[in-house]
Design goal:
mainly alpha, 1 helix, rod-shaped
């Protein structure tokens, strides 16, 4: 039971050649695994970018919707303000007219009492 410098086919082999063959095989496997990892990384980055773009689009849509709602609310408030101002002006005109009328009526009553 000793060590022989022959392969199973009884062909002589070199330890250096075996080392180089194993090294080449190992480096090939390493390069293949590295490429697989790189590809997995690229795929993950693409997936993440796609998710981020989708989230960005959703946020933009929500922002636009909120902006439209805000503009509509602002328009309604402005319309209500104008209506209230018109009501106030009409009320003030009626108030002035009523005050003028009430001021002129006592004078008429006074004149009627004198006659």
């Amino acid at each position: 039971m000793g060590f022989k410098d022959t392969d199973p086919d009884s062909q002589p082999f070199s330890l250096q050649e075996t080392y180089e063959a194993k090294r080449k095989e190992f480096l090939g496997d390493l390069q293949r695994k590295e490429e697989e990892m790189r590809q997995m990384f690229v795929n993950k980055v693409k997936e993440t970018e796609a998710e981020l773009k989708e989230k960005e689009r959703e946020l933009h849509d929500k922002f636009e919707q909120l902006k439209r709602m805000h503009q509509e609310e602002k328009r309604k408030v402005e319309e209500k303000r104008r209506d209230l101002e018109e009501e106030m002006n009409a009320f003030n005109k009626k108030k002035v007219a009523a005050e003028t009328l009430s001021l002129s009526q006592p004078l008429k009553k006074d004149k009627d009492k004198k006659n």
